[in-house]
Amino acid sequence: MRILRNYIIKEIFLPFVLAISVLTSIFLLGSLVNLANLVINKGVSITTMGQVFFLFVPVLVGYTLPIACLVAVIIAFSRFSSDNEILALQACGIHLSRILFPLFVIGVIASLFSLILTASIIPK
Fold it and tell me: For the whole model, what pTM was predicted?
């Protein structure tokens, strides 16, 4: 079962990293317009804008983490489904709960990280 667990985690990891990177970048670009407005119209220094920009990243990761988890699971399991891997695993006698258990663990870890991020890191 360790091989199956590692395989599922490996298939979810790359889409997760890509999704969180892309989503965070998109949200950062959206906030860059507001920060540029502060520099141009209000006279805020560029170093202060850079600090605000990097301090805003944990807030955005808090928003994009659940979305990235969802996207990664959808991508991985759509590939599993299109290659009939889920059907093959069930034909081998592996119950669906064994297949979904790594997702549960990943979800709990992501939820705890998001909780820590929003409860203690972001308010500081």
Answer: 0.83
